[in-house]
Amino acid sequence: MSQPVFLIVDDQKSIAQVLKQKLSVQSTLPIKICHSLAETQMLLATGVTIEVALCDQNLADAPHGETIKYLLQQHIPTVVFSASFYDGKDGGNHYKKIADFVMKDSPAALDYAVNIMLNLSQNAQRQVWLLTSNQSNYAQKLINMLHLQRYQVQTFEKPEKIQQQLTSETPNIILIEDATNLKQEAVYQFIEEVRQGYNLNQLPMMICESSENIYSAIKMMKYGVNDFFNTSFTAEEFYVRLKQNIELSDSYHAIEDISRTDALTKIFNRRYFFESAEKKFAKLQQAQKPFFVLMADIDHFKQVNDTYGHQKGDEAIIFVAKQLQEFFSEYLVARFGGEEFCVFGELSNLDQIEQRCEAFRIHIETESDIATKIQFTVSLGLCSSGMNIDQAFNLADEALYRSKNNGRNKLSHC
Ligand SMILES: Nc1nc2c(ncn2[C@@H]2O[C@H](COP(=O)(O)OP(=O)(O)OP(=O)(O)O)[C@@H](O)[C@H]2O)c(=O)[nH]1
Predict the structure, then answer these.
(1) Parallel/antiparallel/unpaired status of strands 227-229 and 205-208
(2) Predicted ipTM of the assembly
(3) Tell me, what's a Pfam family for it (predicted)?
(4) H or E element: which one contains 212?
(5) Fewer CB near the last or first residue (10 Å), C or N of the chain?
(6) Residue 338 Cα, ligand 1 centroid: separation in angstroms?
(7) Tell me: the pLDDT tens digits for 121-164?
(8) Which of 295, 297, 302 is the pocket-test mutation for ligand 1 (most atoms within 8 Å of CB)?
């Protein structure tokens, strides 16, 4: 299938060009421009898939929003870009199907329009979980509105069902539609339980309350709901709040990713390793399951840097990180800094892990030359005992230094 494209329909050529330029800075998808209804029809006749269209309301050959109507008939997510409020006076109910509306009233509107297009494009990958105990008309209206903005929607009748699904996946936001029809205590308990696993930024929640029940909404917010919306909200008001809550959470996740990732190799860093390994270690101990810690260190790395330069040294580090991730893909792999790495995980079979460590050591010895044009080796230290993660890590480190002292390019056990 060919790549979808963004479509900009505007008879003001300069505006269309500025929009295209701004959009191209932030997206790799192709962008098509049309200046009339006829051009739009010709483009669509080629069979191209439109990701999102931004369409001026009035064009020379379509003075009453006919282009918008045409795009909507083709089921294309369409944002209306107009100097006057789009009221759908051209007859028909199709205006209810527009994904969003942007007022063409200032230079800032161009940035906002681009932001809306990108957001609609991303929404196709965003999950909204809706807790609704009855299939009310409002719940259905909400689902339709979410679909118009391309969100993936899953509905749940009971809080327990959401809890259950949270063990395997996390949505971008949870909407609680009719708390009044659910037992209040159950809703409070649900919010509290969600907040034990996720903070306000990690998983936002919004609650729907009628204007008369505003105090209930505020109480829910005290319990850990981020925001509320009510049945009297316009679609635009609801979309803006939803978008802001999701974007805030996205930014938080992006910062969280940066803070746990090693900049050179893009694998986890030391800080995240200990944070995560401690939790995993506690779970394994509780279940009385064995574990292992593997330390890996490139041999004579100073010499590698001195002989081939720092950049080649970096390539060697990246190569080892990638290979470790491949050989130990089901475990926690991190760079500790410099040329030192660590792996942690559940030990299902000691022989198998030893064999894998050996295979990894031999792979670096034989493949490093081919991949990086310099030949180097690694020393390894393996440990499967210790009262806590720090002790296990120290024991693995001691084993690693035995490998170093015994001639390097070896695996030692604690
Ligand atoms: N290229 C590169 N070098 C780094 C980086 N971080 C640390 N180093 C270098 O890694 C080298 C580590 O050297 P040493 O700790 O003496 O160890 P070694 O030369 O590998 O010797 P053994 O571990 O005993 O085999 C130092 O020269 C550091 O400057 C990095 O991110 N990139």
Answers:
(1) parallel
(2) 0.96
(3) GGDEF
(4) none
(5) N
(6) 6
(7) 999 999 999 998 766 788 888 999 999 999 999 999 889 999 99
(8) 302
